[in-house]
Design a protein that fits this description.
Helix content is 17%, strand content 31%. By secondary structure, the chain is of the alpha+beta class. InterPro entries: GRASP55_65 (IPR007583), GRASP_PDZ (IPR024958), PDZ_sf (IPR036034).
């Protein structure tokens, strides 16, 4: 659905969070790695579909199937997802998809979506990083509940801000292709150097490899 080359000229929506048991969750939409490029409802016979903003399409097609084109930064591929906006799953608010989205430039998303990740390197025994279950060389920090980390120093500043306080991080495991939430407490009392007790790599040599499966 949709012309992928023309989609690149549009604003995309970065999937920041996916709520459990939501329509988006059941459609296997992934936080951080997925970008919604365009959406079209399924047309009835003879119905002409006008281009509309994503929010309008979702609101106008409650309990009706909508086709969404998604670009995966993890696999560097497009895929089509069928989803039914619904309120039935949700007892908290009026979210129809269960998504938290952030508008972003499509060309920038394609060229640098995986740039801002922090690769966990060596993990020292007895450190906060080890206690939190971080896996050396197999884990990448990709964000936190407060949102997306945009620059290299954002992560280090975040750690400093949470000295002696619980810090929740979203961590991607390349070995198991899973995203999990990790809670650690940065501190200087654990008996070694640094607040985390692990090496952290950033930049071209430490990006998440593109998955081929």
């Amino acid at each position: 659905m949709g012309n992928q080359s023309s989609s690149i000229e549009q604003t995309w929506f970065h999937v920041v969070r996916v709520r459990s048991n939501s329509p988006a969750f059941k459609a296997s939409i992934e936080p951080f790695f997925d970008f919604i490029t365009c959406a079209k409802p399924e047309a009835a016979d003879g119905e002409e579909l006008a281009d509309k903003p994503l929010q309008d399409i979702v609101q106008e097609h409650k309990d009706r199937r909508v086709n969404i084109t998604i670009w995966s930064s993890k696999r560097q591929t497009f895929r089509d997802v069928s989803i039914v906006p619904s309120i039935e799953w949700n007892e908290i608010d009026d979210s129809l998809l269960g998504l938290t989205l952030r508008a972003c430039d499509a060309n920038r998303a394609m060229s640098s979506a995986l740039d801002n990740v922090w690769h966990i390197l060596e993990v020292i025994t007895g450190s906060p990083a080890e206690s939190a279950g971080l896996v050396p060389y197999g884990d990448w920090v990709i964000g936190w509940p407060g949102g997306v980390l945009r620059q290299e120093n954002d992560f280090y500043d975040l750690v400093e801000m949470h000295t002696d306080k619980p810090l929740r991080l979203y961590v991607y495991s390349f070995d198991f292709d899973t995203l999990r939430e990790v809670v650690l407490v940065p501190n200087r009392q654990w008996g070694g150097e640094g607040l985390l007790g692990c090496g952290v790599g950033f930049g071209l040599l430490h990006q998440i490899p593109v998955r081929q499966d």
